[in-house]
């Protein structure tokens, strides 16, 4: 028995009416496609039998929310044709294979543009489509290492701190891919001509450090960790442990915020140390001792309602319950999963979590019907066992 699949949900978000094909992968590609889906696009994920995925139940893979899934074996004789049927009717295609793989499978840009010249073909890789490392394997940590950004993070006497895979995969990768394909879509709709978007994590991550490179050239940034205003080197921009082993984050950069911060901390006598680098060691020690005298919640209460630019460092499970985030609905519950709500927000075309994570192959028949493409025989369709 097959499922009817998830119907498309027009009218949700500014990308309503935009059709996107996502060739299944892991990491930045699925996240980019989720963002497009959150913004209202009809995203069809092409999963392959036994294909890639997180080592979790697909029902909990939030990066597949707001999407639909079809199952295609690209190595089967008719596999490429099925993808090209989708590409012919799509506005955007996203893939994250190593360079040359899509071409070998028969679903590369040339094959797709022969069927649909207006298609925006988004390519998500770590190293990019060319260069000495283009065909090498890699992960987020290696990409950000080569860009100089990993080396900026952490204490000077410890190895660089690993920022999960947020900096490379998602900030330098997914977000740049989304910006790229939407810009190319604007061009395609104006000219009738699609193009290839080469989104490399190394390029995007390097681009994120533009301001730092400007400061470095101007002599306002030292090329080493924890020696600068924004990298933990400054004693009034960083984190401090509290009496209960938790942490407070401090960002009291401007003079008036710094003075309010010191006043609430009971350290008014240290006001002159703000721009005196020779006193930063003393300043850090006094601030650390003060924070160590009370718990995180006690300090949170002290700084509540102030402009001292101080906040508690919350865990992933704590964050959704913070009064500000709760009031804004920054997190939402859907299908029993607490997850970040779509962002950003739109006044005329609001977004929402419309459906839970797509189950591999569950929407094959529905997509064939809605997109007007040939369907597979009924006994070949994948049963949704979720």
Q: What features would you describe in this structure?
A:
Mean pLDDT is 93; it is low at 1-5 and 378-386. By secondary structure, the protein is α/β, with parallel strands linked by helices. The protein starts with 18 loop residues before the first strand and ends in a 15-residue tail after the last helix. The chain has a six-stranded parallel sheet, with helices on both faces. Strands 7-8-9 form a three-stranded antiparallel sheet, with helices on one face. A two-stranded antiparallel ribbon has the order 10-11. Helix 1 packs across helix 6, helix 2 (79-89) crosses helix 4 and helix 5 packs across helix 7 (201-208). It has helices at 28-38, 79-89, 101-105, 109-115, 140-147, 166-191, 201-208, 210-217, 255-265, 280-291, 296-303, 323-328, 364-371; strands at 19-23, 42-47, 67-71, 92-95, 120-125, 195-200, 237-241, 247-251, 310-312, 331-334, 337-340.
């Amino acid at each position: 028995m097959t499922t009817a699949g998830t119907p498309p949900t027009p009218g949700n978000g500014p990308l309503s009416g935009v059709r996107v094909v996502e060739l299944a992968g892991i990491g930045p590609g699925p996240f980019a496609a989720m963002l497009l889906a959150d913004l209202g696009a009809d995203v069809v994920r092409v999963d392959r039998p036994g294909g890639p995925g997180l080592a979790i139940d697909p029902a909990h893979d939030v990066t597949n929310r707001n999407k639909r899934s079809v199952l295609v074996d690209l190595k089967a004789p008719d596999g490429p044709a099925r993808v090209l049927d989708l590409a012919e009717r799509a506005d955007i295609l996203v893939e994250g294979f190593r360079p040359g793989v899509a071409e070998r499978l028969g679903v590369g840009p040339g094959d797709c543009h022969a069927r649909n010249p207006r298609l925006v073909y988004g390519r998500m890789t770590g190293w990019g489509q060319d260069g000495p490392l283009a065909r090498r394997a890699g992960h987020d940590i290696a990409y950000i290492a080569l860009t100089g950004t990993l080396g900026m993070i952490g204490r000077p006497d410890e190895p660089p701190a690993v920022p999960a895979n947020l900096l490379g995969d998602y900030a330098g990768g997914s977000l740049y891919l989304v910006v790229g394909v939407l810009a190319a879509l604007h061009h395609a709709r104006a000219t009738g001509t699609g193009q290839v978007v080469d989104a490399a994590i190394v390029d995007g991550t390097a681009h994120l450090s533009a301001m730092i490179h400007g400061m470095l050239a101007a002599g306002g940034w030292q090329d080493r960790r924890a020696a600068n205003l924004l990298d933990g080197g400054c004693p009034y921009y960083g984190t401090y442990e509290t009496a209960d082993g938790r942490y407070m984050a401090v960002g009291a950069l401007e003079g008036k915020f710094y003075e309010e911060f010191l006043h609430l901390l009971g350290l008014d006598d240290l006001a002159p140390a703000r721009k005196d680098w020779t006193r930063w060691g003393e300043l850090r020690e006094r601030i650390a001792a003060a924070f160590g005298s009370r718990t995180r919640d006690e300090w949170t209460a002290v700084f509540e309602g102030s402009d001292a630019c101080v906040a508690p460092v919350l865990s992933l499970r704590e964050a959704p319950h913070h009064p500000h985030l709760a009031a804004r609905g920054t997190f939402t519950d859907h299908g029993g999963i607490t997850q970040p709500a779509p962002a950003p927000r739109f006044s005329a075309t609001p977004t929402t979590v419309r459906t839970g994570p797509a189950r591999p192959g569950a929407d094959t028949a529905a997509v064939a019907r809605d997109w007007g493409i040939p369907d597979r025989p009924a006994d070949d369709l994948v049963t949704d066992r979720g």
